[in-house]
Request: fold
Amino acid sequence: MKLPEFLFDISKWGAFKTSGVALGCAALLLLFRDSSNPEEMLFIQNVVRFAIGSSVIAYCQSLAYSTYCLNKEARDLPILAQVFFMALHLAWFCYWYLYKLA
Reply:
């Protein structure tokens, strides 16, 4: 069975391809999980944390790409607002994904 070509097209998924696949895996894991096994639930939580963290990184990447590559002078947001939102999202990611996971 061959997978459709549009699944691997970067223009359709963009930067959110990794987080979309991780959230799909998390949904499948939740669907077929063993509710009596607590270690399995911890694994699913780690997969969801990875998906959320990769979504944050993809958001920052797409925001920077749309501002500096697509709209050369006409930025979506002022530069200070973008830096603030990127720093806020990256700090949230570092706290919840890196600090809480360890």
Observations:
- The mean pLDDT is 74.
- The two ends are 39 Å apart (CA to CA).
- The chain is about 70% helix and 0% strand.
